Amino acid sequence: MRHRLVLLGSDEIALPAFAAARALPGVEVVAVYSQPDRPSGRGQEVRPNPVAAWARQEGLTLLQPEKLSPEDAAHLRSLDVSLGVVMAYGQILKDDFLQAPRLGLVNFHGSLLPALRGATPVEGALASGLAVTGVSLQQVVRKLDAGPLHASASLAVAPHEGRAALRARLGLLAGELATRALPAILAGVSVPVPQDEAQVSYTRRLARQDAVLDFSGEARLLAGRIAALEGWPGSTFEHQGVTIKVGAAQAVATAVLGASGSVLSADKAGVLVACGSGACLLTHLQRPGGKMLPAGEFLAGFPLAVGTRFVSVEMPPLVGPVPFPRLPKA
Hints:
Distance between the termini: 44 Å
Strand content: 25-35%
Helix content: 10-25%
Structural class: alpha+beta
CATH class of the largest domain: Alpha Beta
CATH topology of the largest domain: Rossmann fold
Number of strands: 17
Radius of gyration: 22 Å
Number of domains: 2
Largest sheet: 7 strands, mixed
Oligomer: single chain
Order of helices and strands: EHEEEHEHEHEHEEHEHEEEEEEHE
Strand order of the largest sheet: 5-2-1-6-7-8-9
């Protein structure tokens, strides 16, 4: 039996899963749904997202509605689709759309559900200091990431791993999971298992105000948060009226001799800052208008004296036991 698939995604993390789904025997991808091309970069040039660019390169039918409508659901029904495969699409799927494919839609989510439902599971795993995370394949329902699970695969978080590297590895893991689990779903023999609602946690969209740093907590979690927010919004602290951005950090287990936020040492190895528990070694820093530099190069142009104390600012939580209030998109 030949299976007609649609793919729905907008982020680069979805590409390995989509390529694996397309490569399955007896599968034809009849359409790719993705977010519209938008301005990006310093020049604000209108560009396609990675999934849209891939679909065009592969000669696949690309659909980019600003917001899915009843007309889009009717069109999907007309395509006579067996299954929809979703990862990092960025739109809410309503009942009429979910019911259009014969087998519904399945979603690859970048965590081991029911942990870390929501928009930023990779960032949530890093900020929580998890040693293991993974990818879950769930049947899509109207409730946020609450559908029953067809399959999952786990992955150890590497020491000092940042968001970009972990996202890339999880994308590849989703590709492997697609090859392993989608055939049974297409054959109608996969029986999804309900999630344990007692174990649920939630993530949320990131905001600029998430960049602040609080040195009064556990160094391990502070380093994880810095890894989670690399790129945008980044992690920053204020010193003498200057906003300094931290590109990477490592937790150091040490008996701290100094108040939290105090500089214990500052050399080419990094800026060692006392935390409430342990210390955090800031290994890459950036000043406004400059480049992200290794600590030694940064300190050559912007010295930080031992004993200097950075002010801590309370950090908004990235993970919680209940859904977060909806924030406007950044």
